[in-house]
Amino acid sequence: MKKGGPQVFIPAYRKMLQKGELENKSVVLSERLSRCDICPRNCGVNRIAGEVGICGVGKRVWVSSYGPHHGEEDPLRGVYGSGTIFFSGCNLNCLYCQNADISQKLSGEEVSTRVLASMMLELQRMGCHNINLVSPTHVVPQIVEAILLAAADGLTLPVVYNSGGYDAISTLQLLEGIIDIYMPDMKYSDENTGRDLSGIPSYPMVNQAAVLEMHRQVGDLKISAAGVAERGLLVRHLVLPNGLAGSQEVLRFIAEQVSADTYLNIMDQYRPAYQAYCKNDLNRMITRAEYLDLIHQAESLGMTRLDKQS
């Protein structure tokens, strides 16, 4: 009996496209812009009419830059890079943001969904392994409309939802069957820390619920024989100096409430930036000991899928 070749991966959104459900979800999401509740901020502004809320973005998205990126996690970058699209604006206001020049002000180019779709298709032609949406939370309706347009024109790459982790469950539920790979941050385990450092209420509660919903949709990360991610959850956690992130509790939640098989990147690249120099407990880099201690803690919790960059 002749053996079949490797199974061809089909992104979730292509199945939605064939059923007509992708267009339906796009319409529902776009309507929500008229009283924006896309993220947990629930600003309620009419972005279709040009009003803006905390993120600063109206009807059209702002793209700071796009192109192949080789600095992402191993399963995302592969050989030819992750096809990143960096969106300007953000629903967070982190005092230490490394990208404050694009998150706290609109930089780059304001584009239509048709142009955004063409960017996705260009990244595919360049050989990228995925479409990596960086800071997508506040522009989900526009992204889904662009995916609809790009899919109709031949987009076949998995889509990565690369967020700060402050995502609304109602929005994530509409993304089910569209997003193949979720990559949220899990920043803090303490509500007061989220308020002090990112200017948002209830970060741990919102974040934990969001990550559980993401995992429910896509499960643990699945990687192809070529070593490239196809579907599943990756989590990022940035180590902050002086234990400010409450990292032990974050790791415990992932291991015990999400999955011990979660692909986890414990990131050691914290550098004081933006307004971090104004806070004594944030104005230094982390030590090697602080970082290694968390690696050991993750391993002691049974977590073995730690990113090789770590």
Polypeptide structure, described:
The protein has 310 residues and is of the alpha/beta class. It has helices spanning 12-19, 21-32, 74-77, 100-103, 113-125, 140-152, 169-175, 191-198, 203-218, 247-258, 288-300; strands spanning 61-69, 82-87, 109-111, 131-134, 159-163, 181-184, 222-223, 229-238, 263-267. It has one domain: TIM Barrel. Strand 5, helix 7 (169-175) and strand 6 (181-184) form a beta-alpha-beta unit. Helix 2 packs antiparallel against helix 6 (140-152). It is globular and about 50 Å long. The termini are far apart.
In short:
This protein has about 300 residues and is an alpha/beta fold.
Low-pLDDT regions: none
CATH topology: TIM Barrel
Assembly classification: single chain
Termini gap:
44 Å
- Helix amount, in percent? 25-40%
Using the coordinates above, name the CATH class: Alpha Beta
Kindly state the number of beta strands.
Answer: 9
The CATH level-2 architecture is identified as: Alpha-Beta Barrel
Number of domains: 1
**Which structural class do the helices and strands define?**
alpha/beta
Radius of gyration: 19 Å
Keywords:
310 residues, 15% strand, 11 helices, TIM Barrel, single chain, alpha/beta
SSE topology:
Layout: H1 12-19, H2 21-32, E1 61-69, H3 74-77, E2 82-87, H4 100-103, E3 109-111, H5 113-125, E4 131-134, H6 140-152, E5 159-163, H7 169-175, E6 181-184, H8 191-198, H9 203-218, E7 222-223, E8 229-238, H10 247-258, E9 263-267, H11 288-300
Parallel strand pairs: 2-4, 4-5, 5-6, 6-8, 8-9
Antiparallel strand pairs: 1-2, 1-3, 7-8
